[in-house]
Amino acid sequence: MNKLKLITLLSIITVMVNAQNPLLGEFKTPHETAPFAAIENEHFLPAFREAIKTGEAEVKNIAENQAEPTFENTVEALDRAGKLLGRTAGIFFNLVSAETCDELQQLAQEISPLLTKYQNDITLNPVLFERVKSVYNQKDNLNLNPEQQTLLENTYLNFVRKGANLSNVDKEKFREISTELSKLSLKFGENVRKETNNFELHITGKSKLSGLPEGALEAAAAKAKSKNKDGWIFDITMPTYLPFMQYADNRELREKMYLAYMSKSFKGNEFDNRENIRKIVNLKLEMAKLLGYKNYAEYALEQRMAMNRQGVYKLLEDLYDASYTVALKEKEEIKAYAERSGFTSEIMPWDWTYFSEKLKEEKFDLNDEMLKPYFELKKVVDGVFGLATELFGITFKPNQEIPVYNEEVVPYEVYDADGSFMAVLYTDFHPRPGKQGGAWMNDFKGQWKENGTDSRPHITIVMNFTRPTETKPALLTFNEVGTFMHEFGHALHGMLANSTYSSLSGTNVYRDFVELPSQIIENWAVEKEFLDRFATHYETGEPISAELVEKIKASQNYLAGYLSVRQLSFGYLDMAWHTLDKQFAGDVKQFEEAAWKKTQIFPVIDEACMSTQFSHLFAGGYAAGYYSYKWAEVLDADAFRVFQENGLFNKEVASSFRKNILEKGGTEHPMVLYKRFRGQEPTVDALLERSGLK
After folding, report:
1. Structural domain range at position 206
2. I want to staple 612 with a disulfide (CB 3.0 to 4.6 A). Which of 34, 80, 265, 631 is the partner?
3. Do 548 and 564 share a structural domain?
4. Is residue 275 flagged as an active site residue?
5. What b/e readout covers 558-590, taking b as 16+ CB neighbours within 10 angstroms?
6. Gap between the Cα atoms of 305 and 519, Å rounded
7. Is 270 domain-assigned?
8. pLDDT at residue 694, rounded to an integer
9. Are residues 416 and 533 in the same domain?
10. What is the per-residue pLDDT for 2?
11. Does the pLDDT at position 531 exceed 90?
């Protein structure tokens, strides 16, 4: 066979293979949603290779365009490029987080370097950068609207921050660093997931489980039964771990559970993350210095509302000064209560949740078990969706024709007040071995406008909530209700997106602004006017009483000092790792203890380590950004005052929040958007008052 015939044959085979790959064709599903039932793991790698090839061709056309560089043919065109790749990656990486397996994890290790190379080939392309720079240098004369100005600014800075101005030698170094970081981040997260799945506490004698509520015992018995074992099995996923620490009378077992939870990836085994941390922080430091920054935090904070480390530390210190003394008083109160109960040992971390829960019940006549009957998951979903309807006019319609990646996932169509289609929303509520811990929002497909069409988003919210049992529906703790509302706030940011460009749409905002929409929604959780709409007892139908709601509100600031200091400790730890200005070869545990020493109120536990499981920093996007949760608390407390002053369901205020915050995404600087809604810059006063710290 001659060479020409061989090439032709190979081309035909390639076309045939691509035609059979469901990821590469048109999605003939409702709203062109991902056709999960047709997708096999074997489809992903060839789909990525083909999507990358398509994206490269699109970018090449932009770089080699013989016409003079313009905003439209260069900057806007770049934002439009790579749609097939974005669609493929959206499906794949959401599955890696929510429905993974060893095969997908191995594929992720192979695919991530391909994506990193693709991105580097764009930002390190000198011809393409010259075109971008040419447009950027004309920015004052182009009559661009604010969104176009932001896209131009972001595009230029993205090239610069990804090495476009580096020498050829340093560009190759940047490629090596970014590729290795992509692999290490995946490995870090996978180690934490496997460590979580590998632990179980198997108990066969019920006498050891005194204090645990019936619901927790029933769930543990069901888990044991599913594994063909007698008795009860407890794991360290949050729906199991937290009630165990709150209610189990057996101190020895509480300690065992605590150490299992807090020693994830810190055991010296194959899932240990200490060396991964050293490599990650050193590579990030090397990358930052390569780009001309002193440390990684300086690099990351350049595109944050806080702007620099001084801004972050001022926030942390202001809140620390208001919180730490209060936290110490709270500890003394817990200690005194424990002693009154006959406890004579030193209060340790595995005692804290247990005794603080008992004191809370004594002080407020309130505990999770009293509240859970009023928070049946299905009713909570109705209530939270109803809040969005009341505030923003959007409605939710289940559509079982939309394919899902797991039978537990429920897909919805979301419609605006005028009946127009807004988004697809997937809800995924319960833990599984293939799902990471925690809770998050993401999108399978973002939102953008092109050629007169508003391409609407496909949003997912994923959680790890208490499962239903043989005798009870899924009943949420009050904290789980708050978590749902938090992630739903992120979902609103995605679903209501109204931008022209995908890179500026929805949650594509500064990291310390992205938590405002999520955290402000949590405020309604303690308002009776809201709870009355759905919080009824799952057996009797009795609505939650005013007395119980008052107890919830009264208990909101319980341990406010401790909880604030705990969050601050994570912020200090994050900043310590990312303000390093020299390569780190030390002991991870010792570094951690020194970094957050001023915030700690318990003795050091040698077997415990937060850093080795801190996926926000080392497997997520919060490096030098964990402070943003506290930053956003300042914003959300200040912003919620507008609702408090004008009415919780005030349509005008809600419309302003939708128009100026939720719809705008990252199209303008977040402080500009915030002031447009609020009328002024935020202060910490509202947060300190809400928390009882002022």
Report:
1. 199-262
2. 265
3. no
4. no
5. bbbbbebbbbbbbbbbbbbbbbbeeebeeebbe
6. 17
7. no
8. 76
9. yes
10. 55
11. yes
